Each structure stands twice: as C-alpha cells, then as structure tokens.
Amino acid sequence: MKKTALVTGAAAGIGRACAMRLARDGMSVGVLDLDLEGCKKVVAEIEAAGGKAIALQASIADRAQVTAAVDKLRAAFGPVTVVVNNAGISNFIAFEEITEAQWDKMFEINVKGTFIVTQVVLPDMKAAQWGRVVNISSSSAQSGSVDQVHYSASKGAVISMTRSLAQALGPLGITVNNIPPGSVANTIMFEANIDKLKMPMDMLVKAIPVRRTGVPDDIANACSWLCLEESGYVTGQTIGVNGGRVLS
Q: Catalytic: which of 115, 130, 151, 190?
C-alpha cells in the first residue's frame, strides 16, 4: 500500500534529504517548512526524479497552520502514516545570557512543535493501525554542549518524548524513534553556527572517529530504514548517526 509522509523543516539540509529519500522509497511526501519557495524547489526535484510531493507552509508551533497543511496533504495523497519531525532551531548563547524569551522560543519550536505535528497526524496512524514517527533530536542532548544549554535541554525532551510515545503507541502498530545527528555539514543550522564552534574544523573532524562530518544523506538513510515495514520491531530507540562522536 502506498504511504504518505510528512517531513518538517524540509526546505533544505536534513529535512530535504529525508523528503527526497522517502519519495525515492515510493512514498508521497508533504514537504513542509516556513520557507515555501524552498519547499517548492524540493518538490520540483522529487517530481523530476519521478516521485510525488507537495509543498506546504506552516510554523510547526502553530496548531491551526499545521492542521491546515496536513489537511492539504491528505487531500492530495491520502492519510499520513509517516512523519519526520525535523524542523527546529538552534543557537549558541552563554547560559547566564539566555533570556526567558529565548528559552521559551527554543522549547516552543523544538518540543511543542514536535508535539503538535505528531498529535495532528496521529488519527491517520491510529485508523491505519500502522505508523512511523521519526524525531530528529541531537547528539548535543546526549553529550551536552557548551553555550547550548537551552538547545540541548529541548532536544533531550525530544528523546524523552520518543521513549514515552513508543510505549503509548506501540500497541497500535505505531513505532516512534529518534535520530540524534552529530556534526552535519551542508545544513542551515551547521553553517549558521560554524563560527561559534569551540575548535577549528580540522580539529572537529579529528575528534570524530570516522574522520569526517556527516552529510544530510547520512541521516536520511537511517530515517528510511526506520520507516520500513520490516523495521516494525524497532521502537523507542535512539539511533545515533554521528560518526562515533557519541557511543551508546
């Protein structure tokens, strides 16, 4: 049975790679982001490769916007039974300088947004008695990160949400897993923060056992595997894709 997936933060980087990979796997894909023009470019790439996709614009922290976008996706391709919660924000700020507004914004997008998107698509998964939820967390939540206390804490919440949802939804045929990426180049988040890293790029690479930074397709590969029919016995798991930076 053909499946429909929703990928958030999909206009570029990891989200784009996940959207394109799931389309290549045969799914119809909702490409959602605040950047609608970016989404349209990704859709064009998917369609050029023979896939099916639709561009969607929404803030994941706004339930009305998410609901409208999901309704549009359903109308185009049918019930949504796969969701990749990739959209998020990040920045580097010394702990003493983080304002309450900055703390709240981090959790509003990274945690509340993931909660809203998952809750909006859940009825389709329950009706199908089948679903795949893949949350993109962060290796910073596992190791900690200087000047990213608010970001690391928000992604830690995503990991905890994953574990609890897996237990709650497993009896319904729905798996919930998370991928904490390591340093992934060619993403908006990485490029925006590269000058704030605590070490030169060559030292960063040497600190990673596989001796390279990741690329978006590394994450998309793991995402694809978690969404397979054959991966139904995998749930509640943290699948680290980080080149060995964090060892489980």
A: 151
Q: Looking at the domain assignment, is residue 191 inside a domain?
A: no
Q: Could you give phi then psi for residue 31, rounded to 5 degrees?
A: -100, 100
Q: Running along the chain, 248 residues long, what does each successive block of 10 average in pLDDT?
A: 95 97 98 98 98 98 98 98 97 96 98 98 98 95 88 97 98 97 70 58 75 87 98 97 82
**Separation CA 159–CA 13 (nearest Å):** 21
pTM score, two decimals? Answer: 0.92
Does residue 237 lie in a domain region? no
Q: Is 151 a catalytic residue?
A: yes
By residue range, what is the domain housing residue 104? 4-183+216-231
Contact 238, 137 (CB under 8 A): yes
* Nearest of 163, 158, 121 to residue 136 by alpha carbon: 158
